[in-house]
């Protein structure tokens, strides 16, 4: 009975019989494969690569590099199809997308006082910075390695912004590579990179969808061909058009009359001015002592100035390069030419300061023994300087407080005598050789080799040293001191 009552209720519903559902037209559906990765380093600049294989999808295929970040990072990205670059983008991105400000990467950069120009053959080291003394990196000769690996992330990361969206050509069934890097190392804490592979497919059979598109195109052609093209003009529109034409003719006639009147008045004014000038010259020729005619000194003073002017003209004709002879127009032309040369030089310098590709693979940069309790390690990275990549070795940043409280490294015995070093030729100008020194690694003494470093204007290098404190020796990091 319960089942019967339900049936009767449905049959007696006042809504009546259900209306047939409207069939939706077929459409394309996107299927996306999104995978996220993080860099196995807190500071890095790449280059990194993510790859996928194109399927040659008939209805559209997209490769996309996505970014999840909590702070601003700078990126350059290139899309390569079978090893050939087809697209490139660059910018600074934060959680909201592209921004105009700088990247938040201060912790990954060497300070201006800390930057190495190039390490010597014996190994890299680095000077102290304004935040405190520093200790150079491992003295072993560096060798090329590879960028830190991209580690897959198990869970999905919320999407923050899209860096590259590349529509894969339909004819491509090869390897799509997205290579990305930064000129300076980024702070990659909390940063993840996503590679999305989006393929468009119809929600029905492909042959049926193609037939649907063909039918839609044919129907559109018939509709356009059958639509009559009728252009009619009402009496009101015709009257407005004729009135506008009449007003335009009247404006042109008045403008012509005003122009003729202006030209006539200008001719009259010119004739009157010429007549006044002629009478003034005739009067002045007869009154050589009139101050109003010849100025101070009368005719004699005027004649002397004329002689000097002619003498100046003869001099300038023979000495065209004398700046005293240049007219205002010539001064302007020379200034424009000079500014043009300066601008070309600036552009050439800017082009040399902007690398055309990613930095080389990072060099091996293992940190030496920690020099103090609170010292922080800044990894090495490639720095673009004077049109070339220069390796800035990693270093320990030692807080001043550690030095003041003698919380730096200690040794149970004094260091050996310094080793003799033969500095190699200086790689660039404005560098000085910083000698090496001994460092205690808790079991034995190791030699930290010297290197070339940037000279600091008005400062001298104070080498690191070991200070005796009873039965132990306390390490005092080196640094640049004001003279």
Question: Mind sketching the topology for me?
Answer:
Blueprint (H helix, E strand, L loop, with lengths): L1 H10 L16 E12 L3 E2 L3 E6 L7 E8 L4 E9 L2 E11 L2 E3 L34 E2 L14 E3 L8 E7 L7 E7 L4 E2 L4 E11 L3 H21 L8 H52 L4 H4 L3 H21 L9 H26 L22 E3 L2 E5 L2 E5 L2 E3 L2 H5 L5 E2 L19 E4 L2 E4 L4 E4 L2 E4 L4 E4 L2 E5 L2 E5 L2 E4 L1
Antiparallel strand pairs: 1-9, 1-13, 2-12, 3-11, 4-10, 4-13, 5-6, 5-11, 6-7, 8-17, 14-17, 15-16, 18-25, 19-22, 20-21, 23-26, 24-25
Offer a few descriptive terms.
single chain; 483 residues; alpha+beta; Jelly Rolls; five-stranded antiparallel β-sheet; 26 strands; flat; disordered N terminus
Task: Give a written overview of the molecule.
The chain is an alpha+beta fold and 483 residues long. Among the domains are: 28-105 and 148-207, Jelly Rolls; 235-349, no CATH class. The protein has seven helices and 26 strands. A five-stranded antiparallel beta sheet has the order 9-1-13-4-10, with no helix packed on it. A hairpin with a 4-residue loop joins strand 20 (437-440) and strand 21. The chain is flat. The relative contact order is 0.17.
